[in-house]
Amino acid sequence: MEYKLVVAHFPVHGLQGHACLPDTGCGDAGDALMTVLFEDDRAAELYLVPCAGEILPGSVYIGKIEEISKSTGAAFVRFTRDLTGYLPLRAGLYPGREIMVQVEKEAMKTKLPRLTENIRLQGRFYVLSSGNKEISVSRKLEEKEKKRLRELTAGFFQDEKERPFGCIIRTEALGQPEEVLRREFLKLASDMTDLLKKAETRTCYSCLLKGPAIWESLYRQIDPERCRRIVTDDPDVLADLKRCRAEYPKGCEPALYQDPLLPLYKLYKFTTLCTEAISGKAFLPSGGYLIIEQTEAFVCIDVNSGRYSGRKNREEAVRLINREAAEEAARQIRLRQLSGTILIDFISMNSDEEREELIRLMRSYIKNDHARVSVVDITPLDIMELTREKVRKPVAGMLSTCILKGRPL
């Protein structure tokens, strides 16, 4: 699989009036920075952030506890002068106490940002953690490799018995040489040490660390050797991307795009991508289509045969359309950042063999998703049940945020 990463300024006002989006009543709703990850030339992930800025997951602040709610098991912490988040309640927390917190998840719908006292710094091979002093290894790795990585990493600590922080060794560390792992570990360890020292002297509401921008996170999640192009039209984004690595694979250095006659967002058809990502339909090669609806309780995806007019008999046609639907549904779930409980209503099947095949296919299609996705089962009514971790707002929510932040006061 080959990757391309594109970050471009995108005029979101062109999408105003869509049923899924708010109408500010003005022609100009500002710009967004839109990031698209392409896999084999197909858009796989899409993110938008307002150019006016946002609170990034991973950011670290000195906050002050405003309220304790024993009934909900939460402490409400003001971490900027304007924003409050919720923190899981533990002993020793009380109103007025100042603590260091990290934004674990951004605000979604009516929910406040979720905060944590366990500060985590992420790299490609390691996640360092201030709250857990153990060395953990990804469960996906075999025991022999787990042992190798654990022993190597233990030797990177100056004092193995009294570690100032712990770490998680990620799946991507598989087969990596010692020097590569050491380089990343020592960089993260230096950053964590500096951060913990800085927290001792900073005042309330100080931002100690700005979380990684989405383009940085995406680049760290993919195999850099398979990345064929990184391009942006924003000099600041270019500088961020260049800081991700000391050196890039040959021919894949981040590049600045400048062409006033053909903006980058038009070159990569961002308007079409956004329109498709908030549309209620997604079409299949056979002529069938998906109906995608977000309700308060779950996401519903309905599979329809549409204009299919092939020569196959009904059983073969159903199998073909359902297979296409499984692949496209997995793509749309990831592209649109749909999460929570997801129900896919496939065309009725005649055998358990077909249902098991769909489950196997869906599990193979979700492997590239960076969020945790679980295929639960398929019911006798041929409704597949999935769950997906809530990591980011859905694309429609991102667009709404960008439009509202860009409106004139």
Model description:
The strands form 4 sheets. Strands 4, 5, 6, 7, 8 and 13 form a 6-stranded antiparallel sheet that branches. Strands 16-17-18-19-21-20 form a 6-stranded mixed sheet, covered by helices on one side. Strands 3-2-1-14-15 form a 5-stranded mixed sheet, sandwiched between helices. It is 28% helix and 28% strand. With 409 residues, it is of the alpha+beta class. Helix 7 packs parallel to helix 8. The protein has helices at 143-154, 178-199, 214-221, 235-244, 264-267, 270-278, 314-336, 352-365, 395-406; strands spanning 3-11, 31-39, 42-50, 60-69, 74-78, 84-88, 98-105, 114-116, 120-122, 126-129, 135-137, 166-169, 207-209, 227-232, 255-256, 281-283, 289-294, 299-304, 340-345, 373-378, 383-388. It is built from 9 helices and 21 strands.
Mean pLDDT reading:
88
Largest sheet: 6 strands, antiparallel
Large-scale geometry: globular
Order of helices and strands: EEEEEEEEEEEHEHEHEHEHHEEEHEHEEH
Number of strands: 21
Question: Which percent range describes the beta-strand content?
Answer: 25-35%
Number of helices, where a helix is a run of at least 4 consecutive DSSP H or I residues: 9
Distance between the termini: 45 Å
Radius of gyration: 23 Å
Low-confidence stretches: 24-29
